[in-house]
Design a protein that fits this description.
Chains A, B: Its EC number is 1.3.99.41. The structure is a homodimer of 592-residue chains. Chain A contains 20 helices and twelve strands. The first copy, chain A, is an alpha+beta fold and 592 residues long. Among the domains of chain A are: 121 residues, Acyl-CoA dehydrogenase/oxidase, N-terminal domain (Butyryl-Coa Dehydrogenase, subunit A, domain 1), CATH 1.10.540; 138 residues, Butyryl-CoA Dehydrogenase, subunit A, domain 2 (Beta Barrel); 133 residues. In chain A, the strands form three sheets. In chain A, strands 3, 4, 5, 6, 7, 10, 11 and 12 form an eight-stranded mixed β-sheet that branches. In chain A, strands 1-2 form a two-stranded antiparallel ribbon.
């Protein structure tokens, strides 16, 4: 069972992702290391002792729909109550509405722990926090006053309603419509699918944020507006009133995260005697819904990245424990009695070290992204621009690389368990199932790679990414000048990988400048993995420079896993033409 | 839904794996291309029309245990009956007992189709065929006379009972025991787990092959004997008699292949009033059970490799169909109305081409292994030795590489479906679940890699593998001298990859010669993937030389996927030391 790796998390925050220098510099006011440690320890305790024990029943029983009501698995509602009573929902929410306004870095670290303990639990509050951010930034004072405090405390939860059957990755195709009622409110009609925690029994009210089109709105995403539609209308005194016409009509039968209800939501069908048309309030300006929604989406992407880190961590712990317990065969390095624990077999070691290294890298990238978000918020001028660009650059890495790592590590973890891994009771298979959604939702990883190449490489006139690579190169130099023997060929490996990143970056920036974006996009996915691996190697090295007990794993990564960078660069630079040529045969007659 | 790719299979058999030259040379007597095509077409029809439609109910309802009886999903028993009535069980079985004695190549091609249509169906007869082979090679004439004909026809099914809770990969630790009854029979006692189709309702009798220890047998695998224990005793007239004391006490709750009953079998507990002790007959000599079992295991490994190919094929078909149907966004290459089918997006194309190329490669390696098995059987002297070594070399590649490909391709296929992929009804998730067992059973892929390095590289004094690489190099030369433009940098890529294989092979052979086997084993898994990718590239090229419409995919593979070879070679050659150093931290106090 999962035990929150509080020390590892604290180390990565402080010594790899930049929290220690920030605390020392007073960046976060009087927030000090002691308080950080105390918060992490308590979050770790909650995740380990309260959430993790409810994982299995959540997976086995799942959320259940009866009529339009969803019941969460036994014990989950009480768990959620204990969780908000602990103040965890408010951790990085604005103080004005009762939040603790702690750094995103801390919020993200805690989020990792909730998701490690049970991803189906961790996902719910993520949506609430997205709603808080969107309302805080874009809503009218009246809406804020009515909803934010209860969303910050967690007394109500929020949702994010984008997807429709014909519109997943492409929001241009959204059809849900909103009609002005003449009294400042709107009536919303349409169907939304894949709505996470769209309906449940955790809270008395659920606050839906919905994208819809006003009459005469322009086609495409420029005609989308964002609305707030609560499950129950809320009086000026905060009391719950009539049931709004938004109902759950179905739950998806999913591969994993069974306890998280994935709902089809019907707006405006006059269900259960309601007046047809879900009553909604505009958030922000008309036809500017997408910008408001992006506030939610960017941070949701980092949050999904944390799910990748989280599942990878749990899978690694589980496999490591099993490998130390299970005995099979003989091993040269084992001189005890009887069969050797399988952790002594080189092939098992390779799997476990790969899992550890990838998990640490995904964590370091994600925390560094949170660090940039924090810095962007508290700085101004050029500095704020710099950190916002950094956050923007790292978000697709955190989302896509970390969630790919989640799948990869969960699969390796299952493999370490041998035949037992395929048996559901062991628990390794459930992680393999849960992990698989994260590369898909909040923008598929393919779309993250396109975002990285098409929108993030050009940041700062192309200079931002070059500056980032230069920072990573400086770490390689530090390794070299450290003269520490244990690093082996780490510095060479890092330099080579970063040279590959430079070359691939220049190449893609050149294609974009020439308007050859299809060729650039053909290399987007390999490029995302390339820069992530190289950055990850540098982060491992930074950690190893701060704590020499970490050198061995860093070296393993550099000498065993970082070599992939060369092949990835070749794909970016030389893969597009053959991809385009071979793809002709993929297209069926009639669809071309 | 799956449609058997009969043409693709026939092409690979004939023009890549060597069937056409063999048929032309009369290697298989009067077997001609027409009959081969007819058999493949009819197998394809059966898989597509009869098996595939029952996949979903098999996955959803699974096999069910009640008392000690297992019921297969609705329709499956009748399906099995139609399948044996078609003669499919007897396809490559010995003629003496009613088999058709067709080449293993054909048997393996048909096996791919059964498994593509429903892996949980395809796995059952694989065990029966293993039992047929073991009995045919090692059993007494009396046992053969009593059991073989009905196992060949499929009227009875066979099983393979090795694993016990404490003994999975390490058969030394087996404890099941067999006591001589004094009348030439034995009484077997013990528990076996993970027994595929150990109990079911397909057939009236089930013939278990069981490894157990005689009293006073030496410890370890040299003390294992193989026994035949039928579910019902069989009279000399072939009539079924008393129930034998071997019972199913539990079914595993598995991640995938739900319709395949995975049984815990209890021998000798006197269940249901039977006389305690399962009555068994010795197969082969006392204490030579492992050698007999290996007859089953080697071919079972190729059969499991086919499951990897099979799932990859189905996943690819499914993703390709979805990508041509689902529309999202705009694409430069699409000038039709409305949103573009997602197959027009370069990132989706990259996934689909990767899936196609990996599937074709895994198929080519596996069929080539079958080709070697066929040639070994029908030739003699040095030639037989050569082909047996080739079969031995390719078996771990077929098993491990193809099943890794199965998981990789099923995961990519799920990704192509976006959010729909995570919904069970879509069917992509089920393939991702099914695929995951194949890298584990019949010897984990880690063990296959160890087998490859420790036992297969030394074949023929180390010459055999070098000869194989030389054959692959000749294909690269043919590509170069063909001067066909469409190949792009294929020849260069192949040469480079094969040079990497050469270097890695020499390096590992050197370590083995120096007795540094732990260092060699650290690189075993990367080496297996390295040689598989390089061989696969050569097989794709061989196919492309025979049919130029295949050049584009071959080039895509060479220019996009084959580059991984360089990194794999580096891992083999330079990865062991850092792996050993970093692994120290994996071992818990108390287990070292």
């Amino acid at each position: 069972m999962y035990r929150a790796p509080v020390e590892e998390i604290a180390f990565t925050l402080k010594h790899v992702a930049g929290l220690k220098p920030a605390l020392d510099a007073g960046t976060f006011g009087d927030l000090g290391e002691d308080l950080v440690d105390a918060i992490l320890a308590e979050a770790g305790r909650f995740a380990t002792e309260e959430i993790a024990p409810l994982y299995k029943i959540g997976d086995e029983q799942g959320a259940v729909l009866s009529g339009a009501a969803v019941t969460t698995p036994p014990g989950w509602k009480a768990l959620y109550r204990r969780w908000i009573d602990g103040g965890w929902n408010a951790l990085s929410a604005p103080e004005e509405f009762g939040g603790q306004a702690l750094p995103t870095m801390l919020g993200v670290a805690a989020l990792e722990m909730w998701n490690s303990a049970a991803m189906a639990f961790g996902i719910g509050p993520t949506l609430t926090m997205g709603a808080v951010e969107a309302l805080d930034k874009h809503a009218s004072p009246a809406l804020k006053a009515k909803y934010l405090e209860k969303l910050v405390s967690g007394e109500w939860m929020g949702t994010m309603n984008l997807t429709e059957p014909q519109a997943g990755s492409d929001l241009n195709a959204l059809r849900a419509r909103a009609e002005p009622a003449g009294d400042g409110t709107y009536r919303i009609f349409g169907q939304k699918i894949f709505i996470t925690y769209g309906e449940h029994d955790f809270t008395d009210n659920i606050i839906h944020l919905v994208l819809a089109r006003l009459p005469d709105a322009p086609a495409g995403t420029r005609g989308l507006s964002l609305f707030l539609a609560p499950k129950f209308l809320v009086g000026d005194d905060g009391a719950l009133g009539a049931r709004n016409d938004v109902f759950c009509s179905g739950l998806e039968h999913k591969l994993g995260i069974h306890a998280s209800p994935t709902c089809t939501m019907i707006y405006g069908d006059g269900f259960e005697g309601t007046v047809p048309g879900a009553i909604g309030w505009l958030i922000g300006e008309e036809n500017k819904g997408l910008a408001c929604m992006f506030t939610m989406m960017n941070n949701a992407r980092l949050a999904v990245g944390m799910q990748g880190v989280a599942v990878a961590e749990t899978a690694t712990q589980k496999a490591l424990a099993y490998a130390n317990d299970r005995r099979q065969g003989k091993a040269a390095s084992y001189d005890g009695d009887g069969m050797a624990p399988i952790v002594h077999h080189p092939d098992v070691q390779r799997n476990l070290l790969t899992m550890k290294a990838l998990t640490q890298i995904a964590r370091a990238i994600s925390y560094s992204c949170a660090h940039a978000i924090d810095n962007a918020r508290i700085s101004s001028g050029d500095e704020a621009t710099h950190w916002q660009e950094r956050a923007n650059l790292l978000t697709p890495l955190a989302k896509a690389f970390a969630t790919d790592v989640g799948v990869e590590v969960a699969s390796l973890g299952l493999q370490v368990h041998g035949g037992m891994g395929f048996i559901e009771e062991t628990g390794a298979a459930a992680l393999y199932r849960d992990a698989r959604i994260a590369p898909i939702y909040e923008g598929t990883n393919g779309i993250q790679a396109i975002d990285l190449v098409a929108r993030k490489l050009p940041l700062g006139g192309g200079e931002h990414v070059r500056g980032y690579i230069a920072e990573l190169k400086a770490v390689a130099s530090q390794v070299r000048t450290s003269n520490l023997q244990g690093f082996g060929r780490t510095a060479d490996g890092l330099d080579k990988a970063l040279d590959n990143v430079c070359e691939a970056t220049r190449f893609l920036q050149g294609l974009l400048a020439d308007g050859r974006s299809d060729e650039a996009l053909a290399g987007a996915t390999p490029y995302l993995r390339l820069i992530s691996l190289a950055a990850g190697g540098a982060y491992l090295a930074r950690g190893a420079l701060a704590d020499q007990s970490r050198i061995a794993l860093c070296r393993f990564f550099a000498e065993n896993l970082l070599g992939e960078a060369g092949a990835l660069k070749e794909r970016v630079i030389g893969g597009a033409e053959s991809l385009a040529t071979a793809s002709k045969a993929l297209i069926s007659a009639g669809t071309s």
